[in-house]
Specification:
The chain has about 425 residues and is α+β, with helices and mostly antiparallel strands. Helices cover about 40% and strands about 30% of the residues. Helix 1 packs parallel to helix 7 (about 165-200) and helix 10 (about 245-265) packs antiparallel against helix 11 (about 285-315).
Amino acid sequence: MTSASEIAAWLADAGLRNMPLEEIVDDFSRRLNEAGVPVTRTFVGMNTLHPMVRARSMIWDRAAPEITHFEFSHAGIDVQIIRESPFMPMLRDGVTERRCDLTDVATVKSVPMFEELHTAGMTEWLGRIFPMGELVPQVGWESEAEHAEQLALVCSLTTDRPGGFSEADLAVLKQTLPVFALAVKAVTMRTLGHGLLAAYLGDDPASRVFAGTVQRGEVQSVEAVLFFTDLRGFTAIADTTPGKELITLLDECFECMVAPVARHGGEVLKFMGDGLLAAFAVILDERAEVCAAALEAAEEVLALVDALNAERRKAGKPAAGLDISLHIGRVLYGNVGTAQRLDFTVIGPAVNEASRIEKLCEPLGQSLLVSQAFAEAATASRRCLVSLGRHRLRGVREETELFALGQAAKISL
């Protein structure tokens, strides 16, 4: 039979080795059962540092084949299942441990979740809260003022043993749960850190930072399709639109831009005021496939922005057109900046050309322009493109041919 000390040692090793959280929860729950502690259900939840995700949780069930995952946004955290959680009064009153008899009628009726557990044959619920020290800034529900919320791990163990957990069970849990919390913190903080970096830098740059690719000037030459966007007429809108409404417009437009780019394999490198720069890396010389993916992403973006603008105009809100340029070339991708502040980005003539091409969208009456280099590489999509003739790009010596979507494929704003 597995001992408590063996479980604790395994947990310490799992945390040091950054074992995936799901594996830690699964193995810990199974090892407790092997040690004679009849855990039927394990719940683990934690608030996060992510700007879009307020909390994540998971449930291990002895009878279920897989762990169930839950995620709550900042706006969606105030839902019934959270308000009625047995952890809420514990968090409010500073209680770190609570045992609940699921055979007691009054206890069961006090929490909707307990009624479900009682119906499923559970006899006792043990909840623990482990404060982690870090503070998470949050915006209050009643005001715009920020307040600090403590980062914490909440977990519960439920059993179906008649009489609930025994004193021997509780002794094992007392020895192992703090180590479990440390192991979870070790792997979760890394995940939180990566998620936080990814939210601001993108998935690939975040992975590179965590892999130690952080030296200034450490760049690599890559071939990529550059995806450059800019909202048309945004300056005029900004002059007449209140700040908060302006930010809402930007957020809604960026939602339309980012999702298709990510879905088609692109990486958003940075937001630049009212536009963004994204890149689709060319791997194994699959230029035609990558160009097709970028072109499909651009069409989807324009369609989404078109739909958004229709909704905003219908509601009497300002709307902004979108210009997109696509170009392909070699760029330098990596770290640039100072010793105190670095940035993952792409640089090179191709980036400048993509920016210059986008500036010609409005004069040429197009929402999407692609370069001659892109048109030549996009062999699988060439039939969708029509030439607009040769044009001079600011700062570029020679004229270049530009292309737009043909009428059959064109999406107008």
